Structures are given as C-alpha cells and as structure tokens.
Amino acid sequence: MWKKFLLVIIVSFLIISWILVYVANGVTSVFVWWSIQAFSFISVFLLVGSVIIFFWKGIFRKRIDRTLFLIILFSIIGAWPVGWFANIGRIAYPADIQSMSPKAVVRVPLNERALIGWGGDQLETNYHVIKPNERWAYDILIPPAEVKSSKLEDYGIYGAKVMAPASGTVVSINNDEKDLIPGLDDFQSMAGNYIYLRIDETETFLILAHLKKGSIKVREGQRVNEGEFLAQVGNSGSSSEPHLHIHHQGKIRPR
C-alpha cells in the first residue's frame, strides 16, 4: 500500500510541477522551477532505496511488483535535475523573451570595445539560462581575455570603468570583497562586489557584478544618470577571470 501512495506522490508532483513551469507566470513559475531541482535530491534517495529493495527481493527470490518498477522509473525522471549541477542534461528555464514584460533598453556599461563571453537565449552560448533570475545575463570581456594568466592586470577588462547602463537609483552595493587570482575559487559570495540599480523607467533592477574591491563610487539611495561612472571591473566573487556580469531582474527587489 505504501508503495502505491509513494508512487502517486512522485507522479503527481512531477506532472503538476512541470505543467506549472510552462504555464504559470512570474514568481509561481520560478518557485516551481527551484522546487523541481530541490525534489531531484529527494528523488535520488528514493531511487537508491528502491533499487536496494529491488536487488534484495531479487536475491531472496521474492515477488517484485510493478509498482516498484514504476517508482524506480519516476525516481529516475525526478532525479534528472541533479545532473544539471554537474552540467549534465541541462535545459534552459522555459521563458520566451518576446513575452517578457517589462522590457528594459539600456546602454553598454563600458566605454571600450568589448566582447560577449556568455550571452543570448540558448544554453550553448549562455550558461546562465538555467537560472530564472539570470535568464538573459551577459558576461562581458575586453581583449586580451582567456589568457590563462594568474596576473589580473594581464586581462584587458580588469580595472575598466563601469558606466550606468540606465538612469536609476542605487538600491544595494557590496564593495569589500577581494579580487581573486584567476582560477581560484575561495570566493565569499557568488556575485562578489556588486551594484543593484533600480531603473527609473521600469522600476526593475539591473545587477552589475564581480566589481573591483573598493572601486564603487556610488552609495545606496543615490540616483545616477545613464553613462555616469559607477565602479571598475574586477574579479571578485565566483569568477574564473576578470569580467563584468550584468543581468536584468524583475520587480522582486534583490537582497
């Protein structure tokens, strides 16, 4: 009896959650997306337990009913997102850029010619697409880049001036994290030093991350104009080499 009850729970969660991810909007869809990933770890434990029971019954020649097979099958499906954390079988968060609202048009946050390291709508060109809040994030570089050097100054973008992409109000900053030697991962936070800017026109947020320690020249609550100097590019936070991360986030205020 308990196996049938467990099977109903697994199947119901998978069907309802995947439908909601594609049909629901806003916070509901985002919450369900993260719930699916959290449930994948539960599915791993269910899968391991079911497989152990399966082999135990096989060894002692006990009857293996169809319900156990189905639990194993749907546990495998439920555990699929665990692989995403190891870059296996990942998919983009299901969202259509044309249907997103409100939209923000901003200027490039650098005055120098730059390259897009990661960006766009597809997983092949933008590893951020798996995260709802970074669905269309960009990582910006200035040559020379990807030089595999341990010296920050060898990267063209290190120290480059970051300009306000749009007029708005600075709602949050972090200015105290050290710049890491490229290749090291002893970061304190994912974003490192950052600026959260609330855009005047849309009241949505722009996030500028991995800034140079101590380089931020604006304060929380300050209003800035498009093109105004904000900070310098660094290599703080979870960053393999100096670059500027930028993404547009909805009306949920960043923490």
UniProtKB/TrEMBL annotation:
The lineage of its organism: Bacteria, Bacillati, Bacillota, Bacilli, Bacillales. Gene3D superfamilies: Glucose Permease (Domain IIA). Residues 232-255 are annotated as: Disordered. It comes from the Bacteria. Residues 245-255 have a biased composition (Basic residues). This is M23ase beta-sheet core domain-containing protein. Residues 158-248 form the M23ase beta-sheet core domain. It comes from Bacillus thuringiensis DB27. The chain crosses the membrane at residues 5-25, 31-56, 68-86. One of its GO terms (molecular function) is metalloendopeptidase activity. Keywords: Membrane, Transmembrane, Transmembrane helix.
